[in-house]
């Protein structure tokens, strides 16, 4: 399937389901049952920083940085419905970032060599052409600018818990795009190896400063009970975070 056809399928999903994802997967959370920005402090002091979020969704991570006095905030998202929700939510909180409706793969007028920090919370995995997206992100950053992103860990998709047993149901090496039905609609995603992200970052001119794969132990028990997701999070990372610097 061509990249543009994949983007259109995913765009339809996000436009139809934006409301049900309102406020989920946003800073200080990097992912479910994952250590948060409150412990990691990867962003440091963002006061006065010029920042861009890729796949900004409902704008909750933008609000997180606005509240911490970021100097200028931009958000890009594929879904106009997500951006409508973000605009309303942020305006209600008296924040007015610049919001752009476009695919992260596309040229969309974002200035080059302009941002101190580009970040993305659970959106980079949707990129149809990872190398192209990372080159674009590098072009938006000033020299020494920071790129931080989180996404689902590939091991999470490879391993299932069945009758108390962990089973490898999918090859870690299989990076093919595959359809999934979510909320009765089709989405398309690949399961990329960690080395694919690392190599795409280095070829775009980043050096990696940090990679985090740490479960948040405090989230594992709910009323003394441990559910299957928590059992999995005890054994393997469900998400990962990278922090890289443009050289
Ligand atoms: C899990 S949500 C991110 C939520 C966001 N971090 C927040 O704070 O609300 C993923 C977002 O990625 C966007 N997305 C998916 N594919 C995209 C693409 N190719 N280009 C830009 N955004 C995309 C979706 O529209 C969706 O809003």
List keywords for this structure.
11 strands; single chain; alpha/beta; 247 residues; binds S-adenosylmethionine; seven-stranded mixed sheet; Rossmann fold; globular; 8 helices; two-stranded antiparallel ribbon
Explained architecture:
The protein is of the alpha/beta class and 247 residues long. It has a single domain (3-153, 192-225, 238-246), classed as Rossmann fold (3-Layer(aba) Sandwich). The chain contains eight helices and eleven strands. It has helices spanning 3-17, 37-40, 60-67, 80-92, 130-140, 154-158, 194-203, 228-235, and strands at residues 50-54, 72-77, 98-101, 115-121, 141-152, 159-162, 165-168, 178-182, 185-189, 206-212, 239-246. The strands form three sheets. A seven-stranded mixed β-sheet has the order 3-2-1-4-5-11-10, with helices on both faces. It starts with a helix and ends with a strand. S-adenosylmethionine is lined by residues 7, 10, 14, 25-26, 55-58, 60-61, 77-79, 82, 103-105, 121-123, 126.
Low-confidence stretches: none
Q: Between the first and last Cα atoms, what is the distance in angstroms?
A: 35 Å
| Major β-sheet profile | 7 strands, mixed
Q: Which class best fits the helix and strand makeup? A: alpha/beta
Tally of discrete structural domains: 1
Helix content range of the residues, please?
A: 25-40%
CATH architecture: 3-Layer(aba) Sandwich
Number of H- or I-type helical stretches: 8
**Global morphology:** globular
CATH topology name, in short, is: Rossmann fold
| Strand runs, count | 11
């Amino acid at each position: 399937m061509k990249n543009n056809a994949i983007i259109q399928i995913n765009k339809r999903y996000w436009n139809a389901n934006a409301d049900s994802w309102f406020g989920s997967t946003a800073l200080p959370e990097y992912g479910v049952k994952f250590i948060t920005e409150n412990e990691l402090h990867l962003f440091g002091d963002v006061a006065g920083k010029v920042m861009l979020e890729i796949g900004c969704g409902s704008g909750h991570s933008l609000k997180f940085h606005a509240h911490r006095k970021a100097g200028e905030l931009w958000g890009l998202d594929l879904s106009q419905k997500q951006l409508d929700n973000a605009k309303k939510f942020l305006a209600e909180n008296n924040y007015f970032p610049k919001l752009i409706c476009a695919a992260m793969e596309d040229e969309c007028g974002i200035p080059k060599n302009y941002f101190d920090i580009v970040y993305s919370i659970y959106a980079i995995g949707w990129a149809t052409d990872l190398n192209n997206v990372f080159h674009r992100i590098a072009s938006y950053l000033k020299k020494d600018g920071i790129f931080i992103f989180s996404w689902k860990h590939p091991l999470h998709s490879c391993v299932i818990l069945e009758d108390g047993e962990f089973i490898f149901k999918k090859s870690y090496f299989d990076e093919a795009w595959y359809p999934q039905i979510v909320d009765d609609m089709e989405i398309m995603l690949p399961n990329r190896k960690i080395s694919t992200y690392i190599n795409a970052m280095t070829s775009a001119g980043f050096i990696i400063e940090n990679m985090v794969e740490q479960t948040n132990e405090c989230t594992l028990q709910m009323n003394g009970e441990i559910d299957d997701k928590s059992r999995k999070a005890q054994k393997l990372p469900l998400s990962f975070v990278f922090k890289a610097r443009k050289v």
